Each structure stands twice: as C-alpha cells, then as structure tokens.
Amino acid sequence: MKRLLSAALILGLCTTTAPAAPVCEMSRAVVLPLRDDGGYLSVPVTVNGHDASMIVDTGSEGSLMTPRGVAAFHLPPDPQHRTMMQGPNGAPRVVPNVRIQDLKLGTPRSGELALGAGTMAVGALPGSPMITPPVFGLLGADVLADYDLEFDVPHQRLTLWRARLGSHVCQPPPVWSGHWTSVPVRRISGRLTVPFTLDGLSGTALLDSGARSHIVSTDFAHRLGLTDEQLALDPGGMTSGVDLHERAYHWHHFKRFELGGTVWTRPVLTVAPVHDQADMLLGSDWFAHHDIWLSYASGQLFFR
C-alpha cells in the first residue's frame, strides 16, 4: 500500500549523442477527502466493499484493523502472518493478522485507489472520533510509503502522488508555486525522521501524523535540564497509545524550536515518554498548520 546499435567512423572522427537528462514526472494517484476531528486525521476507505474510515498514521510502520472492523467485515484470520506491535511505552507484543481481499482508498465520488488484497495486523485504537463511516483502523507506512504525500488539512485534502524517476539523482520538487522549506529526511522502516533543535539541543523528530500533538520525549526534556519535579508543575494529564498503557504528559513552555531554518519562539509542547528512535513526534497539529509534502521518492520534507 514495470536496437540495433550502429556506429560510423569517417576520416577518424567519431560522433556521439549525449544521453537524455532524467525527467521527473509527478502524477496524481488519488486525491482523498481528509478529515481533522480534534487531531485525528482520517480518510474514507472501502474494505471488501464495505465503507469505513482509517486514521492516516505516517508514524506507524504498518497498518492496523481494529477488532470492531474485523467483526463488522467478517475478516478471516491470516495464520501465515503475525505482527510485532510496540506502543509508546516500549513493551512489544505479538498480535494476529487478518486477510483483506480488497482494500480501496477514497470513494467512487472523490476517486478511488485500489490496493487489492493483503494482510493487516489486529489491534485496538486508544481513541478515535465518532464519525460516519466509523474509524476501523489506521494506514501506516506499509501503504503510504509507496507514494509522495501532500497534506492540505485546512482544505481537507490528502493527495497521493506517484513519482516516475528516470534516475536515482532525479528528485522531484513539490508541485507548488512560491517558496517553501526543504529538509532532508532519514527513512527507517518506512517512517521519516528529521533533525531539529530545541532550546539549543539537537535531536531527531519523527513525522507522525497519527500523534495528536508535538510530543517531546521525557528523556530529551531531562537532557535539557528539566526535572520531573519541574514538569510536575506544568498542566497535563494521562494518555495512552496502541498498547493501551497509560502514561503521564505535561504541557511545557520552551524557548525556541527550530526546524529547517524555521524558528518558533516560546512554543508550548507536550512532554511524555516516547520509547522510539526519536526525541520528538511532530504530530497532526503540526500537519494542520502547514502545507506538508512528504517525498518518500526523493528523501525530502517540504513544508510552508
């Protein structure tokens, strides 16, 4: 979620033709209606002909179907596949998979992208909006990383682009006018990370549209000199991830956040445990305030 060679030698002079430069071609695979319900970004899908919605989660390696979706669509188990799932608390567990005969993104009215048959892990979502059609899972990098993704949350659009590359050095820019910021990304198991600086300390941020806010890891906050006693004075609460284990979070005023030369002063960011290969999660609230182009093809993040 492919001549005949001839050469002429005349009076000792050889003529050659230079190879054509690689051409970058971008084509729209599909434009999906994108909902933002309190930080939950979702798109419509059909599963074996049944309507549903799924969270768009660039921070997840794989896609997931909830037990309610399995029951509603009568999805059979897949005895040949199981999935190791790890949530924010870092406790891995093995979950079963189900078989899906036909998965499509979009609707007949908006346009559809047929993904065909496949297998998907089964797991619960800690929270989801009560919308129609109901949210029955999430789409992860196993589906999304085959495309370039253009997020336009204010206009409720998620465009999936196909990049046709003539060469590895061919890096298509976004189909935008005006100015934007470009940041190289690092790809780990389909997920994308970018460097950032917070209050003078450098770190790595995961581009995670499935998280509902900017989340700074507690360990990174400790490296900045913040103590648990200081964080306890900030407002906060309890939250949970796909592992359904609760963890405390706090909202803290930082001084300066920098990403790709763009600076935000006095940002209020969530501080919570993040057991991942990242010091920070750039969540759906960051996606909602920028035009975002995630280019898996060229290894770049573009935003404006």
Which properties best describe this structure?
disordered N terminus, Cathepsin D, subunit A, domain 1, mainly beta, six-stranded antiparallel sheet, 5 helices, 26 strands
Task: Give an account of the 3D structure.
The protein is mainly β and 304 residues long. It has 2 domains: 26-164, Cathepsin D, subunit A, domain 1, CATH 2.40.70.10; 181-303, Acid Proteases (Cathepsin D, subunit A, domain 1). The protein contains 5 helices and 26 strands. It has helices at 67-73, 141-144, 218-223, 228-232, 284-288; strands at residues 9-10, 13-14, 25-33, 35-37, 40-47, 50-56, 64-65, 77-86, 92-107, 111-122, 135-139, 148-152, 157-164, 181-184, 186-188, 191-198, 201-207, 215-217, 236-240, 246-253, 256-259, 262-265, 268-272, 280-282, 292-295, 300-303. The strands form 4 sheets. Strands 15, 16, 17, 18, 19, 20, 21, 22, 23 and 24 form a 10-stranded mixed β-sheet that branches. A 6-stranded antiparallel β-sheet has the order 3-13-12-25-26-14, with no helix packed on it. Strand 25 and strand 26 form a beta hairpin. The radius of gyration is 22 Å and the shape is globular. The relative contact order is 0.20. Mean pLDDT is 87; it is low at 1-19.
